[in-house]
Amino acid sequence: MPFKKGQSGNPKGGIEKEWTWGSLFKDMMEEYADDKTLGKKAIAKAMVVKAQGGDTQAFREMANRMDGMPQQAVDMTSKGEKIQPLLVKFVDGSE
Fold first, then answer.
1. What range defines the domain where residue 63 resides?
2. How confident is the model at residue 14 (pLDDT cuts 50, 70, 90)?
């Protein structure tokens, strides 16, 4: 069946999910803490305790959240040779 111009291929919309990971985590936070902020603080405290205990992954996660991910170096070469810029020439066809 061909699509009609201007008509959505999925008029009923996407499939509605029963749950998402984000909603599941939020529900769990509410279940284990009366105050949502209290639950978040408990998780943050656990991360700090782990980092202070020498858990490098916990420390890395905290540092990435506070300072952002470190910049990644990107090598823009081709086997050690510099890549030349691409030159684009537009021609309108009239002479």
1. 35-68
2. low
